[in-house]
Amino acid sequence: MFSKIFIIGALLAATGVANAMKSLDDIVAVVNNESITRLEVEREVLRLQTPPGEEHKDELAARKNALENLIDRRLQLQYADLYGIQVSDEFFEQQLQTLKKERGVANESDFVKLAQEISGLPYDIFIKQFREDLRIQSLFYRSVYATVEIKNEEVDNFLKTKTDYISPQEYKLRHIIIAKDDPSTAKKKAENLHARLLQGEDFIVLAQQELDGEFAEKGGELGFREEKQLPIVFVQTLKNLTVGETGPVLESPRGFHIIRLEEKRGGRLRLESVERFRLQHLHLPLEEKNKADSIFQDIENGADFDDLVLIHSIDTHKSFQGGDLGWFTRDTIPPFFADTVEALKEGEVSVPIQSPYGWHLVRLSKHKRENLTLEIVQKRVLNMLRENKALKEHGKWLQSLREKSYITIVAPDLLPDDDF
User: Fold this and answer.
1) Among 42, 68, 63, residue whose Cα is nearest residue 125
2) Of the given ranges (186-190, 225-229, 280-284), which has the lowest mean pLDDT?
3) Cis, peptide link before residue 51, omega less than 30° from 0
4) Is 233 or 140 the better-scoring residue by pLDDT?
């Protein structure tokens, strides 16, 4: 479970259990140069209870799980310190207001009561941990999310399987099959029929002559079929056929096939009306909050935003385009921009916004409503796939932190089960 756990059994044996535990007092674990107390474990047990107030059937397992979670949190906060990741009061207050809005609580005293009920913790501890959560989130975006790449093929493959965005491709075709009673004879017969069709004979007539029952009556018509309802060998051919065209002779375990594409439909974007936002930003490092405030004041006093981007922005690639970030929909705006952007009027510049990557002054350059486009859908899917992949990578990244760290559990009752 833990890559580096130093068990103090020898110390307990040498000094006596009572004296050793007394000297360790309430410390249950050490993460690098910081300790975790039993009181913190008990608080974490309360915080992790779902639903709040529900008693754990296995209290010891709950404490072990809480300690593991605390070790992860402590490691991440230590690395946040190392990278200088802090949460400004403005950003903290903005996120707190968002939480209140999500919970439907406007009154401060009601929110204090709700926070205590949700977490099972005193309000000051809840606030402290909420600020820590924001720092951990910033570390995640900087150290994991920012490193994840999604290829265009991944987006395309996802869209092929999801009808929420793209309607399924359907083909209406006619079909003649020659059974493999005698493979060599069947193949020659199929090739002969195919040659006659290419010379202009009627597909329906030939199908009626070669098929039996209902298929013969319909002239070999199969109706509309989705790709998943057709043999792979059919789909590959149909993609290259134009409507009215007959494909080559195809072989399957059942026999030899001749198909003609009558009509196709689907494979189109499902339309809906969406709001789109075109954004620009001026990007500064995390340590330059005062500079961000000063530049915002210059903008308030009439300074040109594009000129200031060229002079000050550290996003050099974008600065040559006036800091242009492109078009977004509500669900694709970076989460740390979202609330602020939605409150902007076209042409307006935001107050400095903190993100895991620094400080941003964001301008809403254009705002319009239009039908959904494939580009918007692809961006939505890309963001979703990136988020999912980053969450999967997060576990590996946490494990790498543990492998580089000194982790000691000094409370025998909280040692992980697989270390006995």
Assistant:
1) 42
2) 225-229
3) yes
4) 140
> In 3-state terms, the chain is what percent helix, strand and coil (to 5)?
50, 20, 30
| 148 has a pLDDT exceeding 50 | yes
Kindly state the average pLDDT of the residues 293-306.
92
> DSSP for 119-133?
HSS-HHHHHHHHHHH
Summarised one tens digit per residue, pLDDT across range 42-80 is: 888 887 764 444 455 578 888 898 899 999 999 999 999
Nearby residues of 104 by Cβ (< 8 Å), 6 or more positions away: none
Give the Cα separation of 284 and 319 in Å (integer).
12
Helix axes 152-161, 374-403, angle to 10 degrees: 110
Tell me how far apart the alpha carbons of residues 418 and 402 are, in angstroms, rounded to a whole number.
Answer: 17
Element (H, E) at 305: helix 305-312
**Taken in order 79, 83, 88, 94, is the CA torsion positive or negative?**
negative
Q: Is the pLDDT of residue 8 over 90?
A: no
Q: Report whether 2 contacts 407 (CB < 8 A).
A: yes
Would you give the distance in Å from CA 62 to the centre of its chain? 29
Please give the Cα distance from 258 to 135 (Å, whole number): 63
**CA-atom Rg of the chain in angstroms:** 32
Q: Which two tokens stand for residue 113?
A: 């009561």
Q: Where are the beta strands (DSSP E) in 186-309?
A: 221-226, 250-252, 255-265, 273-284
What is the three-class DSSP state of 350?
coil
User: How confident is the model at residue 170, as a pLDDT?
Assistant: 84
N- to C-terminal Cα distance for the chain? 12
Question: Is residue 19 over pLDDT 60?
Answer: no
